[in-house]
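User: Sequence in, structure out. Go.
Assistant: Echoing your sequence, followed by the structure tokens.
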Amino acid sequence: MENIYSRQLDIFNPDFQQSTIHIFGIGTIGSYTAFGLAKLGIKNIHIYDFDSVEEHNITNQMYRKENIGNLKSESLKETIEEYCFLNTCVSHNVKIEESNIREIVQNIRENDIVILAFDNMESRNLIYQNIKDMKVNLIDSRMGRELLRIFSLTNLPTNRKLELYEKSLITQIEDIPCSARSVNYNGMVIGGLISSIVKKILTNDKPHFELDFSLDTYDLIIES
């Protein structure tokens, strides 16, 4: 077979990628991100989620109607294997809580990339508090309405922006009603941006610390 990644090799060659990517939460943000990274050719992807696919997930997440009622972790793994020529995605059906946090983070190794894609601050804080002293790279992604926010921190725990990031763990983007929390094009955009940030980290190109973008007004804020 011809190299299926031949159109992107001058931008990113997956053959030289060694780190494992850990995606915590595979709803709108996490499912699009996992799919995008797999399409990019990244082979070592671990996905973590405890939920099952519900009917309302079909419009704004990377799931199909035949997945309804099944575990998100297994459903997304199957989709990646079917559509991305990739059979090394590892799924973890696990609930993020104090009682099993040590077991969860033991999969993470030095220089791995951890992506937080939760829809709540409690789970985000719990993972962060247990990896902040590890030499890893962190991408924290948040969205609501037509807003998105991404924090990128390389080389924990020495990153100079760590204090600023920790202050962001106090609040969500805003108080958003359930009926306005997620729309599919927001998930597609944020999944693509996170994939680009992962590429930067893997090719030793430093990403921006914070990116805020509104798909409603097209206002963009970048903090280096």
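User: And one key feature?
Assistant: The chain has one domain: 18-223.
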